[in-house]
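Help needed: design a sequence for this.
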């Protein structure tokens, strides 16, 4: 993506929400992979109240790719869960009523 490309990357999710906030997810899509200071990152677009938000996270990419008809709309919250690798976490969308346990998702 060049500096003159007019690709709409949405509003950064973290500018309006924080981990644990409950919201109604209307749609989710995998966006482009772009260069970041941590290396290439794939954006995930979340539609909430008619607004497109952007967020990074490999767990979110997997969830978006696994979405099926009937999954949305859904009341959800974003949570970081530990992975099997010590000290590493993955961001996941979980049901709004899910507990804040540290279950390892995979």
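Sure. Designed sequence:
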């Amino acid at each position: 993506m060049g500096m003159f490309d007019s690709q709409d990357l949405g509003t950064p999710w973290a500018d309006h929400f924080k981990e644990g906030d409950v919201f109604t997810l209307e749609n989710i899509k995998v966006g482009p992979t772009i260069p970041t200071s941590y290396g290439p990152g794939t954006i995930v677009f979340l539609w909430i109240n008619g607004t497109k938000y952007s967020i990074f996270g490999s767990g979110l990419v997997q969830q978006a790719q696994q979405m099926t008809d009937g999954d949305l709309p859904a009341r959800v919250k974003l949570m970081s869960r530990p992975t099997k690798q010590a000290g590493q976490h993955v961001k996941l969308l979980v049901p709004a009523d899910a507990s804040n346990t540290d279950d390892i998702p995979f």
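The two ends are 32 Å apart (CA to CA).
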